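Hey, can you fold this one?
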Amino acid sequence: MAPSVLIVDDEKHTREGLKQALAENYDVSLAASADEAFNLMDAQAFDAILTDLRMPGKSGLKVIDRALALPNKPAVLMMTAYGNIDTAVEAMRRGAVDFLTKPVNIERLDVLLRRALKAKSLEIEVQQLHERLDDKFDLKAIIGESPLLKDIIDRVKKVAQSKATILIEGESGTGKELVAQAIHQSSPRARGPFIAVHCASLSENLLESELFGHEKGSFTGATERRIGRFESADGGTLFLDEIGEISGSIQVKLLRFLETKAIDRVGGSKTIELDVRLVTATNRNLEQLVREGKFREDLYFRLDVVRFVMPPLRNRSGDIPALIAHFIKLYSDENGIPEIEIEAGAMKTLQAYAWPGNIRELRNFCENAVVLHKGGKLSEFDLDPRFRGTPSAPSDAGSPGQPGASQTLSVEQNEKRILREALIKSRGNRTKAAELMGISRRTLHRKLAQWPELDVVDK
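Sure. Predicted structure:
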């Protein structure tokens, strides 16, 4: 569809001439006055408006004001006679993207229109991107109803509006970066950049250059000036993950930034002042590193203005059903696959599992389940043995009823584990389970009466 352009000019031959010149590439509408233009703007949306400055009645400045008050603001170009440049500058101050002097050069008009429409398109894309980021990383993206998580959400709301430096602690996969992004998206910096750096993935020299940038010739291979992540985050938030892994020299430069809000590029002599909020995260105990002399105490206190401690997933098992539902929908939509159903027995097992990889492990499990089961049902029998607390297939484990089971369990615990695994492997068929264990069906019934929690209904 061709871009829509409204031409506003009280001179008929100018209007008609411009329409004829633009009609091949644009959907052109005409207005002879500001009031007529207002009516057309109320009736339809325009991508661009080209208006004369001086007209009987309301001037072109009124057209600009009305156009830029619309929900979907068009790009506005001003036409003016030679000698009215000061007024044209006023038009641009009000929001016009450019101006042309009369008589209008059609080639220049086409160039300006294309440029203005491209800029408008990019502006819309950026706005849509921000809206998607708001949806993806705002507080609604932190899923769960556990008291531990609700406390974190409440504290995010409180600290987001401040400029305080934040330290987020927690095991790998607990959602530290998600909380950092939620803080950014909930803050006045939300329209600024959010820059994340994973400190452990880079060597000391590379990390220093990555964070602070470098000047041309500052070291071998520095063939040009490079802007670092601090400068890229100006006006926004810089998130440094695995902060406990940084070297002593980088700790010193971080401390200087926190004290002065300024940095120096590697090999540079100019101090660069920045407006950057620093959020850091670690899966290590920084207080312990301070005691061991591996982390500067003064930097630790600068980072630890507000501290969040992310709970491991095993401590919020009540949130697992909601997280699973969220990720199943996410990956079902992403792959165009119907959502799978998690049966009650499987969900109970998943809630009892320790999730050593936390939410990251849960997310991977959900993606795998969606892709492999494609809209079907997921039962307890479909789960990997690790979710049931049994070894996957160690070489010395043996089969149910055979030697090689865990020697750390009591005799009763080990027998219960073997019985449960046999029932699961036989999909609840008691005759087959008894055969796997090398016992009679009658003995199996007796053991199930002794341990009813192990009972699995015959299939």
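Residues 106-137 form the longest helix (32 residues). Let me know if you want another pass with a different chain boundary.
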